[in-house]
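[INFO] parsing input record for protein-tyrosine-phosphatase
[DEBUG] input buffer:
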Amino acid sequence: MLNWLFDKKKKEVNLERIGMDIHSHLIPGIDDGVETIEESVAMVQKMQDLGFSQIYTTPHVMWDCYRNTPEVILSGLEDVRSACRIAGLTVEINAAAEYFIDEHFIETLNTGQGLLTLPGNRLLVELPYSTPLMNTSETLFKIIEKGFQPVLAHPERYTYFYSDPSVFKKLSDQGCELQVNILSLGGYYGDNVHKMADWLLRHRLITFLGTDAHRMQHLDLISKGDKASWLTKYDFQNEKLLSA
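[DEBUG] output buffer:
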């Protein structure tokens, strides 16, 4: 069972064996994540305490809202790294991005340049929440054609797939990896999202668990294991599902 996720002495969740978080919003002032460098340092400290040894923070790139370029993101990353070094933190911090699939993303993908990737040349992408793309499968396949590995962020939150969740099996079979938010499994986003995350877990379709931390509240809830019966309910025989 997943009892290793709990620190019995501290009675907190211990994520040391996951090791790397591939989804967070820790660069201040460039998206809907942290607002100050002090927040960034505090959250990195908390993630280190949770057991993470490596962080890939992933600011939104959504051209209607957050026009983040690699230069903006990497400059912000250096600021966070510097502040964390001064604070004496040892966790390794890198940056990629969470790309909203819009026209700007497709244009950038066509050039094959200017994209920030996770290890293994992975691209973290997200879909619209309310209206499905007409060509989701084709777009994800195009990412593969361009030499990248697509990782779909929080699939459990796309409600328009609830009527036929087998679509996630099809996407996985086509080569798309799925990243589920830890708090979805704990019920933070509501019962329906929790049920879908649970379905993905039971069907072994989760490739990565991520914090998707935007603020300290998210990490506090994860550390307390609020509503986290899933931690001991399921047994991942293949532990690579929880690592990079």
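[INFO] DSSP finds nine helices and eleven strands in the chain.
[INFO] shutting down worker
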